[in-house]
Amino acid sequence: MITNNTLEILGQKVIPGETKTIRLNIAKLHTMTEMDIPIIISRSIHEGATVLLTAGLHGDELTGIEIVRQVVRRRIHLPQTGTIICIPVINIFGFVNQSRQFPDGRDLNRVFPGTPNGSLAGRFAFHLMNDIVPHVDYVVDFHAGGMSRFNASQIRIAPGNPELENLARAFQPPFILYSDNIDGSFRKSCDEIGVKYLLFEGGKSIDINHDIVEDGVAGIMRLLDNLNMLNKDFSVDDIRTEPIFITESIWVRAPYSGLFHSQTKHGDYVTEGEVLATISDPYGEVEEQVLAPNSGYIINENQAPIVFQGDAVYHISTRLKDE
């Protein structure tokens, strides 16, 4: 809570103009080693909004962790007005194990808003929603595609929310994708209590892609500038690029199993019937084409060298806003 302009989180007070790292601890390893989640809080002497930057909800999504780390390292997290809270690694257990899940096998992003007496993942979700999120106005949560599935830089928002559209547009990702909130997700729980939430997707798991990192860091700077929070030591490019709004999309699935030879990449615009990839056997006898079912933008590509029949290999837009 904020009392006389003092922010109190997890029993610790942060005064205007102060930067402090506090630690959330809800469990130990079976070795009895403490697993603390650092929460970096930076406050301006000037009043303003509170922005929460989070990553590592899935512990193997390293690009998002690197984005928030660089925000701290470059000192972008020191606001001109308001407060910026950074949690570079939410799922510290998954990060240590390079795993998507919590040690209890649960996907943390399916157990929100959590419970104080449930599973380990549920307990952590409860503390995040009750100890941290009530203090903030905006959340930017960074994610990546699954193993070998590379997402183009994109912001995902629920449809029908003009304020979220404006925030996403201020971030200026290449793509803004409309997608409904999922039950049990961090995004839906934030929405239900009125906290504005942007979901950033970019890159793939167990990988750090520096182009995606730069997209994420630049987007944060533009968003903070839009909220009058960007420190005066930084500036953003005056060139405004209108993102591509995607309202509908489909997954293209591998019609065969075999070696996968992609001929297109994330971000490309393809036309209906265009060859996206070929799938071959390892013996030089069979080579089949994968064709685009419609014209649209590739927002996710499978970068695996081998695919099985039915695997998702491309995510392609089917309809853009105002079409």
Automatic annotation (TrEMBL):
Organism's domain of life? Bacteria
Q: Output the Gene Ontology terms for molecular function.
A: hydrolase activity, acting on carbon-nitrogen (but not peptide) bonds, in linear amides; hydrolase activity, acting on ester bonds; metal ion binding
Q: Which InterPro entries match?
A: AstE_AspA_cat, N-alpha-Ac-DABA-like, N-alpha-Ac-DABA_deacetylase
Q: Which UniProt keywords apply?
A: Hydrolase, Metal-binding, Zinc
- Transmembrane helix among keywords: no
The record's section on Pfam families has: AstE_AspA_cat
Essential cofactor(s): Zn(2+)
Query: Is the keyword Metal-binding in the record?
Result: yes
**Start and end residues of each Succinylglutamate desuccinylase/Aspartoacylase catalytic domain:** 48-225
The name under which this protein is listed is Succinylglutamate desuccinylase
Q: Which organism is it from?
A: Avrilella dinanensis
